Amino acid sequence: MASTGSILLNLADLHPDKNAAILGFFGSLEALEKPSFKSLRQVSGLTNADIGKLTAVFEGGVLDQELKRIEKNRIKAIDISQPEYPALLKEIARPPLVLYLRGEAQVLSQYCLAVVGTRIPTFYGLAMAEQFTRDLASLGIVIVSGLARGIDSQAHKTALACGRTVAVLGSGLLDIYPRENQALAEKIAVAGAVISEFPLTTPPLRENFPRRNRVVSGLCRGVLVVEAAARSGALITAHLALEQNREVFAVPGKADSPVSQGTHQLIKEGAKLVEDVDDILEELNISV
């Protein structure tokens, strides 16, 4: 179970630099379980508004409610100081302090690869997502995606049939989005994990999804993009992957297809064009 201090900071949703300053001052997440709010005034960079947020969470019942939800719904909460927290995710800039999880934490530390793409795929895109996911999952590679409609959903469903998968949410675990993927999320929790860095009842706000995408890529050795328009969340994931020193792969599409403009741009920028799973295995130095 994550420390109360880590959940307190997560609920307050301060800037990561301010969290770092607080941890530097108190020395550990455990020391924040019963914080002295007078002491907080000595933390460099904290404003009265920041201290007000922390006070409201701790004294206003918000923290107690979250802890009760975690227990009632049998959700695991892992903070960055615990051995179950995936080591690869710790390497990214500003990793989540807390991961809320349904499923098995161990799967997060296995060999993972992300499969992402458009929410409005063509039949070709769905077929490519199925083919690549099936071949990768059959080798024991954990497939990570964002539970979105389209390519993400296809990747999760295919991985469930022959391996394991992880869904990373842009909302809290008690507010699954999109709604039609509630049953899919339940299946993933049995054969992998559903995770989120957001407090349990957080709605799927637009600004949450870039944060979600950095976790998708951060858990993985590489990201495979299957169909993405010129302006696509999948491209955000790919660019975050590059910043995190991960490999980026792209499936080519028809030259005049709007949902392949983004993948073609990635290839022009240096992403590896892949025609089958062997192209990915060779780049990642995986022998089978």
Key words describing this protein structure:
single chain, 288 residues, alpha/beta, DNA polymerase, domain 1, Rossmann fold, nine-stranded mixed β-sheet, 13 helices
Please, could you describe this protein's structure?
Helix content is 43%, strand content 14%. It contains 13 helices and 9 strands. Strands 1-2-6-5-4-3-7-8-9 form a 9-stranded mixed β-sheet, with helices on both faces. Helix 1 crosses helix 5, helix 7 runs parallel beside helix 8 (151-162) and helix 10 (208-218) crosses helix 11.
> Whole-number average pLDDT?
94
CATH-assigned fold name of the largest domain: Rossmann fold
**What order do the SSEs take from the amino end to the carboxyl end, as H and E?**
HHHHHEHEEHEHEHEHEHEHEH
Instruction: Give the tally of structural domains.
Output: 2
Short description:
With 288 residues, the protein is an alpha/beta fold. It is 43% helix and 14% strand.
How do the strands and helices of this protein lay out in sequence?
Blueprint: H1 4-12, H2 16-26, H3 37-40, H4 48-59, H5 62-72, E1 76-79, H6 87-90, E2 98-103, E3 112-117, H7 123-138, E4 142-145, H8 151-162, E5 165-168, H9 182-190, E6 192-196, H10 208-218, E7 222-226, H11 233-243, E8 247-251, H12 261-268, E9 272-273, H13 277-283
Parallel strand pairs: 3-4, 3-7, 4-5, 5-6, 7-8, 8-9
Antiparallel strand pairs: 1-2, 2-6
Helix pairs in contact: 1-4, 1-5, 7-8, 10-11
